[in-house]
Design brief:
With 331 residues, the chain is an alpha/beta fold. It has a single domain (3-328), classed as Alpha/Beta hydrolase fold, catalytic domain (Rossmann fold, 3-Layer(aba) Sandwich). The chain contains 15 helices and nine strands. A nine-stranded mixed sheet has the order 3-2-1-5-4-6-7-8-9, sandwiched between helices. The longest helix is centred in the middle third of the chain and has 15 residues, at 135-149. The termini are far apart. The model is unreliable at 1-14, 25-40 and 85-95 (pLDDT under 50).
């Protein structure tokens, strides 16, 4: 296709991008009817989020980390839990359920190791966000997810340098791939720490692409697969052909993988068009996924989300799919 034609095709998708892919910033203005009191989970009692990031630091105030690429950094984020009662929950529709109160960067010659050592003695829930996320929106999603799951271990976020804009899809995909080394270092440090239990990974959208790349790279390390717990890919924005090629190479990890899909996911429909019409794993035919030996949770017809791309956060029963995946491996 000639450059001018390519530009015209991309410009034609801009209205769809605005309507579809903006869904990847999920929790900035969302009431969560299934979230209980602020202290109903381990994370609610201690809203400290471990952060490993390949975003460049932008200073000691919000937004703390920007969209540019930087060295792997370990930080801890203090979050405010959602308030109690109906009034607080209605207010959260404007302000967001969780807020980032502050961030402390932990200086270390080995950021991945320091990150892992901060998780000592617990199972870890590692959240990997998707396209069009800021540092703060990703942190809020991680907090909301952990709280909704009543996860009793340590909650962590791997955040890569998303451009945080609707037209930054290509930049985001390249940034996710560029962050592979940082992600694999972080994941390897976690599983190498003998005091940590299992590492449960929940990846959303384009974050599933990064997660699969990391798992594929580390899969042959001795004892690695045994330390990985549940792997939940929510609405994975991954080429279905590449997905079919990668998953069988993950060995026993594939048997602990749950894929949350929805053929009606409008954001993935836009992504498919950008990718030349190739289906994304999160909206692929179920038969293709079943053959890979992964668990498939088809959310068609569920939830109230117009774009159907964030049901693992916005719908109580879909969130419980994540909970059951963790419970099955003893988390």
């Amino acid at each position: 296709m000639r450059p001018a034609a390519t530009r015209r095709s991309f410009l034609a998708l801009i209205p769809l991008l605005g309507a579809g892919l903006s869904a990847c910033v999920q929790s900035e203005a969302m009431v969560s009817p299934f979230v209980g009191p602020a202290d109903s989970s381990g994370f609610g009692k201690e809203p400290q989020l471990l952060v490993a990031t390949t975003r460049k630091s932008v200073g000691d105030r919000a937004p703390w980390f920007g969209s540019e690429r930087g060295p792997l950094t370990f930080a801890e984020a203090r979050l405010s839990a959602p308030g109690r009662g109906l009034a607080a929950r209605v207010s959260s529709a404007v302000s967001g359920d969780w807020q980032v109160l502050g961030v402390t960067r932990r200086t270390s010659a080995d950021a991945a190791r320091a990150f892992a050592e901060a998780s000592n003695g617990r199972d870890v829930l590692l959240y990997v966000h998707g396209f069009n996320e800021t540092f703060e929106s990703a942190a809020r999603s991680a907090g909301q997810l952990s709280h909704s799951l009543a996860f009793e271990g340590r909650t962590a976020l791997f955040t890569w340098p998303s451009g945080g804009g609707l037209l930054a899809y290509a930049y985001d995909r390249e940034s996710a791939l560029w962050s592979r080394d940082g992600f694999t270092r972080t994941l390897k440090a976690l599983v190498d720490n003998p005091t940590i239990g299992r590492v449960h990974i929940v990846a959303h959208s384009m974050g599933s692409f990064l997660t699969l790349e990391g798992l594929r790279e580390l899969r042959d390390l001795e004892g690695f697969s045994d330390r990985i717990g549940a792997v939940v890919l929510a609405s994975p924005d991954v080429d279905i052909d590449a997905f079919e090629q990668t998953v069988p190479r993950l060995g026993t990890i594939a048997g602990r993988m749950t894929v949350i899909v929805d053929p009606g996911d409008r954001a993935l429909a836009v992504s498919s068009r950008i990718a030349g019409g190739v289906a994304r794993a999160g909206a692929a035919d179920r038969e293709r996924l079943d053959k890979l030996g992964v668990r498939v949770a088809d959310t068609a017809g569920r939830g109230w989300s117009m774009l159907r791309h964030d049901l693992f956060l916005s719908d109580a029963e879909v969130t419980q799919v994540v909970r059951r995946a963790i419970d099955r491996v003893g988390g």
